[in-house]
């Protein structure tokens, strides 16, 4: 998730480490704070893999800034990761939001739709946070108002996301159809 966020933000524009960290924190920080001890090793790994490059530029003050940019290979890698997200990127809400934040960088509307269909299929599977043996429990099945709250909120969120996914897939299908691609 962190590497995807780094690649995604750098796809838009070159950034220095502090600004990159600030943007990633805004996207995921409430759930998974990004520490320097995590960010900079990930940057080094991506540099070593020739997915990004570092350039030193004069800073606003006395210290120079290390600007990070994506290489052509970095752009290809971002699009590959977006087109072929891991199953955990589809099923984990926080990882899914990271994919979704950058899915626009995948130019092929059908490829975008394929990713959205995977999420849709996942959300359409019956699931719950609580089970009675193998049977998923609904909020109505519980006496605990706090667990009812979890299920009520999750159901409302899922309904909203399902509606958005279906509408977006219709839109992508009509765009792909207008472009002569498979709807």
Describe, in plain words, how this protein is organized in 3D.
The protein has 183 residues and is mainly alpha-helical. It folds into two domains: 2-79, Winged helix-like DNA-binding domain superfamily/Winged helix DNA-binding domain (Arc Repressor Mutant, subunit A), CATH 1.10.10; 108-178. It is 62% helix and 10% strand. The strands form two sheets. The protein has a three-stranded antiparallel β-sheet with strand order 1-3-2. α1 (2-12) packs across α4, α1 (2-12) packs parallel to α6 (93-102) and α7 packs antiparallel against α8 (145-178). The longest helix is centred in the C-terminal third of the chain and has 34 residues, at 145-178. It is globular and about 65 Å long. It starts with a helix and ends in a 5-residue tail after the last helix. The mean pLDDT is 89.
Descriptive key words:
three-stranded antiparallel beta sheet, 183 residues, mainly alpha, 5 strands, 2 domains, Arc Repressor Mutant, subunit A
Overall form? globular
CATH superfamily of the largest domain: Winged helix-like DNA-binding domain superfamily/Winged helix DNA-binding domain
Which percent range describes the beta-strand content?
5-15%
The proportion of residues forming helix, as a percent range, comes to 55-70%
Rg measurement, Å: 20 Å
End-to-end distance: 30 Å
CATH class of the largest domain: Mainly Alpha
**N-to-C SSE string, H for helix and E for strand:** HEHHEEHHHHEEH
The largest sheet, given as strand count, sense and whether it forms a barrel, is: 3 strands, antiparallel
- Spans of at least 5 consecutive residues with low confidence: none
On the 0-100 scale, what is the average pLDDT? 89
Number of strands: 5
CATH topology of the largest domain: Arc Repressor Mutant, subunit A
Structural class: mainly alpha
How many domains is the backbone divided into? 2
So, CATH architecture of the largest domain?
A: Orthogonal Bundle
Number of helices: 8
Strand order of the largest sheet: 1-3-2
């Amino acid at each position: 998730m962190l590497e995807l966020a780094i690649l995604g933000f750098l796809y838009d524009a070159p950034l220095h480490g502090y600004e990159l960290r600030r943007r990633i924190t805004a996207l995921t920080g409430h759930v998974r704070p990004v520490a320097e001890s995590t960010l900079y090793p990930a940057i080094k790994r991506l540099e070593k893999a020739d997915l990004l490059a570092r350039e030193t530029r004069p800073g606003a003050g006395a210290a120079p800034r290390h600007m990070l940019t994506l290489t052509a290979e970095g752009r290809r890698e971002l699009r590959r990761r977006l087109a072929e997200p891991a199953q955990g990127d589809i099923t984990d809400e926080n990882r899914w939001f990271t994919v979704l934040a950058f899915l626009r960088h995948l130019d092929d509307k059908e490829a975008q739709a394929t990713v959205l269909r995977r999420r849709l299929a996942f959300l359409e599977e019956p699931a719950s946070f609580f089970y009675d043996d193998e049977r998923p429990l609904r909020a109505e099945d519980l006496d605990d108002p706090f667990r009812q709250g979890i299920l009520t909120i999750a159901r409302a969120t899922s309904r909203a996301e399902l509606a958005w996914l279906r509408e977006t897939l219709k839109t992508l299908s009509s765009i792909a159809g207008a472009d002569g691609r498979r709807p």
